[in-house]
Amino acid sequence: MEDIKEDSGKTLVELTTDRIIDYITSRQLKPGDKVPTEAEFLDRFAVSRGTLREAFKVLIARNILESRQGAGTFISEKQGIPDDPLGLTFIYDDQMLALDMIDLRLMIEPKAAQLAAVNATEEQKQALIDMMKVLEDRISKGESYVAEDGKFHQLIAESTGNRIIGNLTYILFSSIEKNISLTLNNLSVSNTLYYHRRILKAILEGKIFDAYNAMTNHLSLIREYMIKADENSQNKIEEQS
Amino acid sequence: MEDIKEDSGKTLVELTTDRIIDYITSRQLKPGDKVPTEAEFLDRFAVSRGTLREAFKVLIARNILESRQGAGTFISEKQGIPDDPLGLTFIYDDQMLALDMIDLRLMIEPKAAQLAAVNATEEQKQALIDMMKVLEDRISKGESYVAEDGKFHQLIAESTGNRIIGNLTYILFSSIEKNISLTLNNLSVSNTLYYHRRILKAILEGKIFDAYNAMTNHLSLIREYMIKADENSQNKIEEQS
């Protein structure tokens, strides 16, 4: 049994969450792996059942662990990435938020597409082809494709070979889904179809400049469309007054 | 008294956290603002004291609320941004993590410096000048300046006028502090001093290409240094074997 000392002003619950994280990382547990039962952890750490339960709750709230009814506690598939990691819930004047997001995406995604054209594995290329088919299918049925659109970009980020870009893009898209409402119309449907196909082709053929340029055009045209839509709504307000 | 309905498979605690977040955002509460007492929330939501306390704990674990001994509960200064937002704790083979991070920074920060050269307010410019002085002071005393270095880059990100870049950079630097150990030596001290001064001058004078290039060189040289250091340690291992 190991002893937990109070230091650096941390509470016992905080020290216990730190110890559980150490337990996970030192064993390199992966999403979906089961963690020991309450009884096993109580054997290991010199803490009360109450403290241990609090620590579990904190780790579940932080998307590090997840509890499955009747099956036990597991490493969360969300990999500790929280629900609103960019804190966008607390940026209130959100008129400009969608534009800020596209400007950031323009900094990252063209280069991500370029890296994917060099580094994507055969498996990742196949996942992109499959996601393109799902996207085309949803569009042809007139259904919403926001989630599939995000997943396509996410797959590209994961194909860069840079793990931080993969995790970051996951954060950006969960922030978009939660905090930014993108109104899409016919213009952006045809943009999405045309440029997603172009980006996919460039990645499959390893053409880095095509990948870079197609992604740049894709996002820049969305940016133009957003500014145009904003100007139109401004004009309407002025006409009415 | 408002009633909370169970839907979409959410637990009562999850629904209650959602309601508290709604309460915060609808009133546009800011970091440091006090939130109502337990009794006031119990009046407002039809939940048990136990459920409300659990919801508070979740929000504290997510860095949305913070509890101050004897003073009550407040909106956290951390703005809901968690301790390891990029989930880097769970990327285990971290040999390449520092390089992945610098590659990502090279995508974002040169353009951020360019934006800051156009958009920085007088207050933000003064904050950059002050931080440069603190940085120079620490370096001249031979003290660690990793935190001040990060804050300098953070101030630039906040001066872009793009709020998402500001929050994102906060995430990147807290991830670096927590997950990536950067070994700095004399080479990177002189790099830091020279290029931070160049970047500062360019931002103060509104020179966008100078700002872009100085930041690019600053980070590219750190990148070169990291690769060189990695090769040297590889060579040592080979010599020994």
Quick summary:
The structure is a homodimer of 241-residue chains. With 241 residues, chain A is mainly alpha-helical.
Architecture overview:
Two copies of one chain form a homodimer. By secondary structure, chain A is mainly alpha-helical. Chain A folds into two domains: 12-75, Arc Repressor Mutant, subunit A (Orthogonal Bundle); 88-240, GntR ligand-binding domain-like (Four Helix Bundle (Hemerythrin (Met), subunit A), Up-down Bundle), CATH 1.20.120. The first copy, chain A, has helices spanning 12-26, 38-44, 49-61, 97-119, 122-140, 146-158, 163-179, 186-205, 208-240, and strands at residues 65-68, 72-75. Chain A binds chain B through residues 21, 24-25, 28, 30-31, 54, 57-58, 61-62, 79-92, 96-97, 100-101, 103-104, 107-108, 111, 162-165, 167-168, 171, and chain B through 21, 24-25, 28, 30-31, 54, 57-58, 61-62, 75, 79-92, 96-97, 100-101, 103-104, 107-108, 111, 162-165, 167-168, 171.
